[in-house]
Write a structure and sequence with these properties.
Elements: E1 20-29, E2 35-44, E3 52-55, E4 66-70, E5 77-86, E6 91-95, E7 101-102, E8 108-118, E9 123-132, E10 137-139, E11 143-144, E12 158-160, E13 162-170, E14 176-180, E15 190-191, E16 194-195, E17 199-209, E18 214-223
Parallel strand pairs: 11-18
Antiparallel strand pairs: 1-2, 3-4, 4-7, 5-6, 5-8, 8-9, 10-12, 13-14, 13-17, 15-16, 17-18
């Protein structure tokens, strides 16, 4: 009789679905028709359930280290194995601490697998996909003052993570008066050596990230003197 609920003839196997202590009472009869009984206490260990948390949830390349947090349940964990696969490079990083941190140098797809084991020797595995985004930043100021005071003299976008870019400036009639393809020098508010008048000028920015993602942005900038 098992836990006062089940009975089995002869040899048997039983899967314990719930952790706990079970009492096994066995009765037997030999060839001489002599009978006896025995009892055995059986402890069914709790099976762990592996769970992880990734913070931040949407990491960026070359940002702060990403924290991998073990949230597993089911007994006391005493063994952790983290396997992080870079899908593009087919390269695996291995950690054997409970809460490791990883610095992502490259954007792309990664697969994180955690194998946990508790003090009872029971183990479980969970797998999570991680997408690391490009370190891609675009900021375009909306005004500048080319008046030779040494402050805010040039109009220049602030970019990060770009592979290439091109920017054109247009006057109020739609004529192109300046273009740039590098960040070494911005627009100083002149055209063909002559100072442009105060006013609003439009711009068009074409940019591509290292991953190949492309954007075309437009806007306006005010020139003050």
């Amino acid at each position: 009789m098992l836990n006062q609920q089940s009975s089995y003839p002869g040899n048997f196997k039983r899967c314990f679905e719930t952790a706990g202590t079970y009492l096994l009472l066995g009765t037997y009869t030999d060839n001489n028709n002599c009978s006896g009984s025995t009892t055995l206490s059986i402890h069914a260990a709790e099976k762990p359930k592996a769970q992880v948390n990734v913070s931040p949830e949407h990491p960026v390349e070359n940002g702060d280290p990403v924290q991998f947090q073990d949230l597993s349940e089911g007994g006391t964990m005493n063994s952790w194995q983290w396997n992080l696969l870079d899908v593009a490079q087919q390269k695996t990083s291995l950690y054997k601490v409970q809460h490791p941190a990883h610095y992502f140098e490259n954007s792309g797809s990664y697969v994180l697998a955690l194998v946990v084991k508790n003090t009872e020797g029971c183990s479980d595995t969970t797998v999570k996909s991680i997408r690391v985004e490009d370190d891609f930043l675009v900021f375009v100021p909306n005004a500048f003052t080319p008046n030779s005071d040494g402050r805010n003299e040039c109009f220049l976008p602030v970019l990060r993570g770009q592979k290439f870019f091109g920017m054109q400036i247009y006057d109020r009639w739609g004529h192109e008066i300046f273009s740039m393809t590098e960040l070494a020098k911005g627009w100083d508010g002149t055209h063909k050596g002559n100072a442009c008048p105060e006013g609003v000028y439009t711009w068009k920015l074409s940019i591509a990230a290292k991953s190949g993602v492309q954007k075309i942005l437009t806007g306006a900038v005010t020139l003050y003197r």
